[in-house]
Specification:
The strands form four sheets. The chain has a six-stranded mixed sheet with strand order 7-8-9-4-10-11, with helices on both faces. It has eight helices and 22 strands. By secondary structure, the chain is an alpha+beta fold. It folds into two domains: about 5-245, Rossmann fold, CATH 3.40.50; about 260-385, Nucleic acid-binding proteins (OB fold (Dihydrolipoamide Acetyltransferase, E2P), Beta Barrel), CATH 2.40.50.
């Protein structure tokens, strides 16, 4: 799996030293250094340092207005940075014209030529540059995007997913070092979007090019990308492999934006080499030290709803270490593969519990008294100074 060397932002959350950034003059990937874009007093992107390795599938993920699309447009040459530098394979492209960059962009609206058939849409860039062997190259590209049988149809005769593959083929045939994907699946329905996620990842693996994908859809980013950078207010909150971000978030924004989290206030009692002990409303709970990101004496104990077990009062649950008594079921939602509960705890907070419908346990009803439990290794601890609701409201529009 490709790994990004480091992303740093001057105002982003920090959790220990990162690896050194590459030397842009010799780095064979894409390097952003202190990249900033402001419109008057509004900073869309602020002091962004980022290395994207050659051949990786990288996602910029965040809500509307977080700066991800502005970053993409600066890489494409469609926006001029206010300050900072962009280098690609050691060459400074900060102020290069879009056509001077080995970069192509696929937009959400595809931007296909309606009067040309699929073959000629894909061939357009090659014909414009008077390339040789156009027909052979186009046929190979149509085969790659699985549209070789649709070559003589017009865009209007194709489905949304097929049009998206035409747009991919037209961009990739120009042999760009970097392909930029700006919310490419936003116009598709849910089922088609999921199949296209797999399709685009397959194409990226086959061509071995660097793909940078901008999206507000967490599932899309986590399904497709090797590395995800979560952006918020123009900086990168956290970056890493999808599983790492989900299982060990380092800020409340990431914990809430990637899926859902229960965040429970607690006081830190003890820090050992491997375990941090927290008094959570009178109950001692343990958090592994590498998952504790609270520098002070208070923190938010975090646990994902699917990691919480629910049982009868006194029932022995398979999660030794953190058992929380005194819960009362306040809401039940049956969603097929799982049942989602809200459980009101003695301190007044409602916790979310997602229980798999395996048939091993009965379904609880509103008003039932229950106990909750989770394994300490699934919990994480976040800075109490951060907003417990940051990132919880996600918009469907782009930013």
């Amino acid at each position: 799996m490709s790994q990004v060397v480091e992303a740093a932002a001057s105002e982003g959350p920090s959790d220990g030293p990162g690896e050194q950034l590459a030397d842009p003059a010799t780095y064979d990937g894409l390097a952003l250094r202190a990249l900033t874009k402001h419109f008057g007093s509004f900073y869309a992107v602020r002091d962004l340092d980022l290395d994207v390795p050659r051949g990786s599938f990288f996602a910029l993920l965040g809500p509307s207005g977080c700066g991800k699309t502005t970053t993409l447009r600066m890489v494409a040459g469609l926006e001029t940075p206010s300050s900072g530098a962009i280098t690609l394979s050691g060459k400074d492209i900060t102020y290069a014209k879009p056509y001077q960059r080995p970069v192509n962009t696929v937009f959400q609206n595809y931007a296909l030529f309606p009067h040309l058939d699929i073959f000629e849409n894909v061939a357009f860039g090659l014909r414009r540059r008077k390339q040789k062997d156009v027909d052979k190259t186009v046929r190979e590209m149509l085969e790659l995007v699985e549209l070789d049988t649709q070559a003589r149809k017009k865009p209007a005769q194709l489905s949304g997913g097929q049009q998206q593959r035409v747009a991919l083929g037209r961009a990739l045939i120009n042999n760009p070092e970097v392909l930029l994907l700006d919310e490419p699946l936003g116009a598709l329905d849910l089922k088609l979007r999921r199949s296209m996620q797999i399709e685009i990842k397959r194409i990226q693996t086959e061509v071995g090019r660097t793909f940078i994908h901008v999206t507000h859809d967490q599932e899309e980013a986590m399904t497709m990308a090797d590395t995800v950078a979560v952006m918020n207010h123009g900086v990168i909150e956290q970056m890493g492999a999808p599983a790492e971000l989900y299982e060990n978030p380092r800020s409340t924004f990431v914990a809430n934006f990637l899926g859902q989290s229960n965040l429970i206030e607690g006081n830190i009692k003890n820090r050992a080499a491997d375990i941090v002990t927290v008094d959570m409303h009178g109950i001692d709970v343990s958090i592994p030290a590498p998952r504790a990101h609270a520098p002070g004496d208070r923190g938010w104990v975090g646990i994902r709803p699917e990691k919480v077990l629910i049982g009868e009062v006194g029932e022995e649950l398979d999660a030794p270490g953190n058992t929380i008594p005194g819960g009362v079921v306040s809401d039940v939602s049956f969603v097929g593969v799982s049942t989602q509960y809200l459980v009101r705890m003695p301190w007044g907070q409602e916790l979310q519990v997602f229980s798999q419908n395996t048939g091993r346990h009965r379904l609880f009803a509103v008003g039932d008294q229950v106990e909750l439990s989770w394994r300490p290794e699934y919990a994480f601890l976040l800075d109490a100074a951060q907003d417990a609701f940051a990132g919880a409201q996600k918009l469907d529009s782009d930013g």
